[in-house]
Amino acid sequence: MSYSHKTKEFKFILHRAEETNATALIVANKELLFQNQQKEARAAELAIANEELIFQNLEKEKRAAELVIANIELAFQNQEKEKRAAELVIANIELAFQNHEKEDRAAELLIANKELIYQNEEKENRAAELIIANNELIFQNEEKENRAAELIVANIELAFQNEEKENRAAELAIANIELAFQNHEKEDRAAELLIANNELVFQNEEKEKRAVELNLAYRELKKADEYLKEYVKGLEEMMYMTSQDVRRPVANIIGLTNIINDFINSPAQLKKPIKYLKQSAVELDLFLNELTAFIGNLEKKGKSQ
Length: 305
Description:
- This protein is mainly α.
- The protein contains five helices and no strands.
- The protein has helices spanning 3-41, 47-76, 81-184, 193-262, 267-304.
- The termini are far apart.
């Protein structure tokens, strides 16, 4: 084979290689355009990926420039093609490596998008739990306001009973003053002494009865005050127990429900969350039994007093 024929064959091969490189460059440019369009949609979240893509584009441009220079030098050095063949192989390996790196970046971008979707779902779940907690807090505040209103009514009733007691004491003082006045008048009322004495005995008996009734009323009032204090204390303990012992197993059950929803297609992984869910339900049942017993004891105390 003559030297000119070899030269024509090499030029043909070189022309095919240039067409292949041009086709690859066109494909790379189209892919770069697609990536730029995707980059605009995710500019806020994929800043680091964009910087990496820009760096790869710069590297590709550098490699393209180096490849053009190498092709020009290859056309000029046709006689030394055997020596430059190894360099061409290395350039092809580098190009394959860049394509592989590009695929890895696309896979990483897909993983980042899945992670972002998962984080958004978690945020929505936390928002739902926060709404439930706020509703429960509003309910507890309303219950506290109701108990405070009941306590105010009880205090008003107690103040009324105290006023009644003071009125009875004032009437008793007036009766004593009247008795003293009657003693001063007994010398002038000698003829009416027998009737006055009978009236005085009757008044003394009535006064003793009123004193006994007043003492009983005072004891009843004291018992009612003690029971009211005990009742308020029991309500505070019950609200504290409800806010502490009920909230924790309820929160556990909500969290375990979310976990079970994530592993609904994996029965093997559901065993442990179901175990914890059962444990939380048992704790909640025990607390309800304790709360029922506590309310029963509070009612017994009230009835006994």
